[in-house]
Fold:
Amino acid sequence: MKNETDSLRLENQLCFPLYAAARGVVRRYRPHLDALNLTYTQYIAMMVMWEERLCSVRELGKRLYLDSGTLTPVLKSLEQKGCVRRYRSPEDERVLLVELTENGRQLREACADIPYKVGCSFDLSAQDAQTLHRLLYQILGQFD
Amino acid sequence: MKNETDSLRLENQLCFPLYAAARGVVRRYRPHLDALNLTYTQYIAMMVMWEERLCSVRELGKRLYLDSGTLTPVLKSLEQKGCVRRYRSPEDERVLLVELTENGRQLREACADIPYKVGCSFDLSAQDAQTLHRLLYQILGQFD
DNA sequence: TATAATTTAATTGTGCTCAATTGAATCGAG
DNA sequence: CTCGATTCAATTGAGCACAATTAAATTATA
Structure:
């Protein structure tokens, strides 16, 4: 039987373990990404670029649930590293297109084993991972 | 049958929905916390204080999976608002003790309905919430 | 067509996260 | 007791998250 006291206990919140686990998992990626001179946000942005090759900032933001305030500096940094090109769409000058470069494409091979390595570092059964995946996307679906 | 191509797809990662869902959930708290002039990090710090009343920065950090670089400014801000007091332990001057004030205690009542309100805004069955909770703590347990 | 509304990305400012470093206090081995 | 190691919090610097604002381009409407 829950009351106000229980509801404000840290361990009864969903937000807390969610937030802490997310940061912890990102921390596990860091050593692998450091070696490739990538931040985590740059990495997930590149994941979209590997799938799309050409993509507007807006589309990228929708996929990643991030706005231009976050993406603009991330994409500028990726451009400086030569992973993407950025240019205004000729059809609509408001739209900034981001395009994968050959350099960026090659980075994908270097990243190929990261998910496996990080995945192995977690003691989570395939069944549990799948359940977690499903529940997270169920939550994410409510942010559209 | 998975290959490198699949493993680097955004939607096959666990890290991505975890991170995005965590931020989305925190965003749902924001309007409620804004009304009380609290940030999310201040809020979870207060949750520990409501449970402990007196707690070192180190213990707080262990509970929240945060270090002093994050906590120091958060706790200073909470002190300025009059929610906690901070003072060095007489037994060990290295240790900074954080103590709940009467003001801080009263804040708890004002926060009492936040978990319920936020919880209601998610379409997640009690069963699913419990499963998610279990899986997240299973992951968190690997960060100790 | 003129202008009002909308869309898009960039910018700005505040706060969080984290790694690395610093400095003080304490502890432990000799 | 002394010196080196450890512990603890604070600080610093880099990068991310996000709300709010700005400016330009486009679209819709009167």
